[in-house]
Amino acid sequence: MSLVSEEFPEEVPPRAEEITIPADVTPERVPTHIVDYSEAEQSDEQLHQEISQANVICIVYAVNNKHSIDKVTSRWIPLINERTDKDSRLPLILVGNKSDLVEYSSMETILPIMNQYTEIETCVECSAKNLKNISELFYYAQKAVLHPTGPLYCPEEKEMKPACVKALTRIFKISDQDNDGTLNDAELNFFQRICFNTPLAPQALEDVKNVVRKHISDGVADSGLTLKGFLFLHTLFIQRGRHETTWTVLRRFGYDDDLDLTPEYLFPLLKIPPDCTTELNHHAYLFLQSTFDKHDLDRDCALSPDELKDLFKVFPYIPWGPDVNNTVCTNERGWITYQGFLSQWTLTTYLDVQRCLEYLGYLGYSILTEQESQASAITVTRDKKIDLQKKQTQRNVFRCNVIGVKNCGKSGVLQALLGRNLTRQKKIRDDHKSYYAINTVYVYGQEKYLLLHDISESEFLTEAEILCDVVCLVYDVSNPKSFEYCARIFKQHFMDSRIPCLIVAAKSDLHEVKQEYSISPTDFCRKHKMPPPQAFTCNTTDAPSKDIFVKLTTMAMYPEDHYRDRLSRDTGNTDRIENLRKIWVFLKTAFHARLRCMCTCNRCTFCICQNFLNSDLLQSVKNKIFTAVLNRLRARVAEWGAVLLADDEGSVTHQVHAVSSVEDSIFMESSHGPLFLEARHVTQADLKSSTFWLRASFGATVFAVLGFAMYKALLKQR
């Protein structure tokens, strides 16, 4: 009542009404509800209910009443503790009231009680009558909730608790940006600015170091604050009652009241629409580059086991297992290289973005980059359907599912992406194998990430196993039963989809046997309008060829081109013949329409021309020309097929077959508009050949008509 009215009431009731202090009048800007309890008016059950809702409890005693002081330990503290868990005790404030009635202090009596009960935050002597320390009392009560001593400090041992030391050690390592074991002036200023929004003056920095030097010998080294010095400073803050300083630092780095990193800090909100993927952006790669450089102490562009262990000291656990070394590129000693380090982060972002956000939180990404959260490091790609519509993509990571029977060579394909031949692959332990591999691939001068996923053999693939950008179907050329599985999976899941597929003939260095399937792999690819099987082996002296990985990445980047290619190959030959027939009919119709006569005299020039066009002679000439054009076109198609096979297979020993590489589309506006021909992927020589015969037939027709017209004119003159 003295706090609210700022004067002592003449008549004091046994119990005051509940009081609410608004946030804008408190130093910490937190609303506070003050609930009074009177033993004379209220029951123990009502007290228990109030205790269960309280954040802090003030136990008031009279400094001039020994029985009142004894009751603190005989009744009130045991009553409170039996209603709360041992690990989550409420902070207590001891309040010695009526200090105006005595000339002495009760602190000598109270100190042993404070040492006995660690939940007691502080003791304040006050006088409600004189308004002494009344506002301070409630300030300390607020402070006990917002900046509790319990999680930070152990009064009995007079040192910080292990959880607090662990949290502050992580903060020190994050702030030590050059990883030299000390915080130099620039790092201390950055730390001061991000935690308290103000830098330290040079003299203030020197004063801090002098305080540390005065108390511990190894607190300052090379003009920088060591970890011991950093921990000593926070111990000093707590011992002097400045808990808020340490709590401000802890909360800035994401810790809650239990000294655990909060879910809001580790997992910021990130919305990912369907059919979209997640990638790291340029700022994230720059941060990871600086993190790698920070821990690559020997500057060999690879992280040794000790360097990697040092990097993960800011994590509560080791996030990467031994399989990571077989997922990304390593050097000859098996240490993760700079490229492998970035690749592993790219893989984590693509497969499990929430885990990536968590890992970036442990590294202090949002703090060191001064961003709102780790979500700013992530780029959410646009819907894949939009990429297909626009026929271009802005994505940098493409997923390829590698499918095949067991022991067909899928693991070899994955390891070949990392540049490992068969000799290096044999050294991989079974319990260290990985079902993923990721590395960079250059397509048309652009650096892209290709992610390979080894799909285990099964009768039917799940929806997650089908979801990818490109499919690699692998069969063993030395196993006659290997290809049948690839063919069956293709027909079940990918034959009618827009996902591009590539068949790889693995172990091509071994003797090739006939596959126990109705048709050969080459004929299967030709039938389903796919690229021919790609010969592949990792049994090489140097690193295996990466040609198939470039092809896979290109197909993933431009899936619409592959799909259109399949359609054009499927309908190319039939459409070409039909289009030539339409051309002839159109030319005949258009030419005949212009010479059409309105009479039936059979004597005028127009009638003579019409009769000539319908004559058996001209029809015979037309058929012979048309047949000659078709025969020549078929010969050219056969030649194109042979050339394509030679280019794709690298050999002309395969069966020569006609592969259509022409996609013709003809738009005809009947006799009311022009003829529009669009022929794609046709060479200039082919166009000239077809055009020559069409011109020849048209010229012969015109020449015959003009000849008959002149002949008729001469007859009339005679």
TrEMBL record:
Residues 1-147, 395-558 form the Miro domain. GO terms for biological process: establishment of mitochondrion localization, microtubule-mediated; mitochondrion organization. It catalyses: GTP + H2O = GDP + phosphate + H(+); ATP + H2O = ADP + phosphate + H(+); UTP + H2O = UDP + phosphate + H(+). SUPFAM superfamilies: EF-hand, P-loop containing nucleoside triphosphate hydrolases. Residues 283-318 form the EF-hand domain. It is a single-pass type IV membrane protein. CDD domains: Miro1 (cd01893), Miro2 (cd01892). The chain crosses the membrane at residues 692-711. Atypical mitochondrial nucleoside-triphosphatase (NTPase) involved in mitochondrial trafficking. Probably involved in control of anterograde transport of mitochondria and their subcellular distribution. Promotes mitochondrial fission during high calcium conditions. Can hydrolyze GTP, ATP and UTP. Belongs to the mitochondrial Rho GTPase family. This is Mitochondrial Rho GTPase. It comes from Camelus ferus (Wild bactrian camel).
